Amino acid sequence: MKTKLFTALLLLTAMSAVSQELTVTSPNQKISVGLLNDRQVSTGEWYLKVSYHSDTQISEVIPRIDLGLIRDDQGFSKDLKFLKAGKPTTINEDYSAIHGKRSQCSNEGNEVVVAFENPGKARMNLIVRAYNDGVVFRYEFPEREGVFTIQDELTAYVVPDTTERWLQKFDLSNEGLYNHMKDDQAQQDWSYPALFHVGNNACWYLVHEADVDRDYCATKLSNLDNRSSYKVTLPYPHEGEGEALPTINLPWKSPWRVIIVGDLSDIVESTLVDDISSPSNLADTDWIKPGKVSWNYWSDNHGTRDFKTVCEFTDLAAAMDWPYTLFDWEWDVMTNGGTVEDAAKYALSKGVKPLIWYNSGMFKWITATPVDRMKTHENRMKEFAWLKEKGFAGVKIDFFLSEKQYMIDYYLDILEDAAKFELLVYFHGCLVPRGWARTYPHLMTYEGVRGAEWYNNNPELTTTAPEHNSVMPFTRNVVGSMDYTPVTFANSQHPHITSYGHELALSVVFESALQHMADRPEGYADLPDAAKWFLREVPAAWDDTKFLGGFPGRDVMLARQNGDAWYLGGINSENKEKTLTINFDFLTSGQKYKLTLIADGKHDKSFITRYLVVDETSKLDVKLLRRGGFAANLTPLY
What gap in Å lies between CA 408 and CA 369, rounded to an integer? Predict the structure, then answer.
């Protein structure tokens, strides 16, 4: 029976002159990936095709994913001979996550390893998996020895012109806006993740990569050569110091190429990027604590230089019961009543754990201080020992701005050294997540997003934030924690046009294991009691996440669970009022909940608070202002 069931789940078609196709199907049989050869023989150029089986139709998601690698000694793309497909295997692994969108995760899929041989008799394997929420594949060189350079990766996703897409122009900071496009007319380099909507049906997919390690670099997508083909592209020589092309040591496996597939709930709720990444080897993780952080930089770009300002933000964290406060750049020149050591003592005396900023030191022209304390192992060990002695809980390290192999080494060196001192880590001016939060669970969050800091940089975010904010849950925040530094009610150097309800909702809509609340103390002190209560209570890590509705750039509603309680956030990105309907069918059957709903009031700086009893059969209409929003809490009634 077990054998028959497995055969039904995963179809492996024998290679023959009639059919040159291998098909791997997901456990729920909704997603399939086929291996094909245009020439219908056992030797040639191979590609993958991804399909999605909904309740009503079969959709061709990606008609062609070209395959291949070029090493400095030989190529692995043309005239590849199919040798064999290994025995189909089931991947079935449950694991716990300390932070993220879900605490209990499952790595469950079906896998086949396909062996190829090039004309020089060298072997390359292709490992293909199908999951209920997507398809992943990676390359493998199984030989036991050899050192080579990868000169090019030929993986390319062919996207029909009729496919709708949300893409971000590539920049090393990964802090751009997503462009919504109806076709493939724009040709350039693109950042991960890339979101696509297939035709007029309910099928979506998100392209990314995962499990990047020291044996490779991070990559980007590019359709410069062929506008319909988004090619995986290695770093260019000018993108940071060091060699652009990665060096590999055999045996070797590439990072996973990831396509998350399904309807919008499948995309938003997916943990596939973490699921397929390497498990953590930390024996003790009790010291890793997600939480909210007070942060002085947004309201005062030189705030940490002033001891009294640092103390004010420490007092804010204490008053709001937030566990952390961040000392940002220029802490090494702190004046006006105390030093950084004094500030750390003050924070600890208030029950607040200090976090502290560092410049990566990788770029001579970025001189923000301190600049020279992270770059070498010796410097890190000395600095981390000092931080541990002074009671610091973690480090924010900034300005990486390269995705070459040497920079991947640097990221991982920092993470491994920080773990020895039980220090939390988060990266800024960096790549977007590649699954490291599973491998290194003390990596709490990344920037890699156009966040609230951009209200300081220029006036653009004032007008683009409403749409941008509802694109993030479908793109950047799908693949890992996102340090947007949200929930700002006051204005910084450039104003908001989002409502207070919209800003409050971002504490739920955006997931970050260290959630930096960026406003000044009076921005929170002046809130009504219900909103202040909500910001005290809302967690920074979740047991579950549910997509309740929305569309990129228009609106979004999410529900996130922590223990028995649920927290809801909904935002309107459009320049018109609208009513969103909350369907509570995600709640436990038979259980009644007290709902505290904090939504837009009569104008964009006011709230209206409602208290109701609901259960899984309830529905509730919530009126939102233009660019408005709501937040809600659900607590069981016993």
Answer: 23
